[in-house]
Specification:
two-stranded antiparallel ribbon; 63 residues; alpha+beta; single chain; elongated; 4 strands
Length: 63
């Protein structure tokens, strides 16, 4: 299963988490995930991808 979320460097030391299906930056709690450190962006993208894998697996079981 492909990861849904990935990182894109905006500027040196500035990263965005984006949705690979839409190409748009991720928005959480009305905050766009841009201008992040690589460490924070990687950690959050990993959590988002884990959550997405679980959501898709659950949806597949219902089908």
């Amino acid at each position: 299963m492909a990861n849904r979320y990935a990182l894109r460097m905006d500027q040196p030391e500035s990263w965005t988490i984006f949705d690979i299906f839409t190409g748009q930056p991720v928005e959480l709690k009305h905050q766009v995930m841009v201008g992040m450190t690589v460490r924070d962006a990687e950690a959050l993208a990993d959590r988002l991808n884990s959550r997405d894998v679980k959501r898709r697996a659950k949806a597949d079981r219902k089908s």
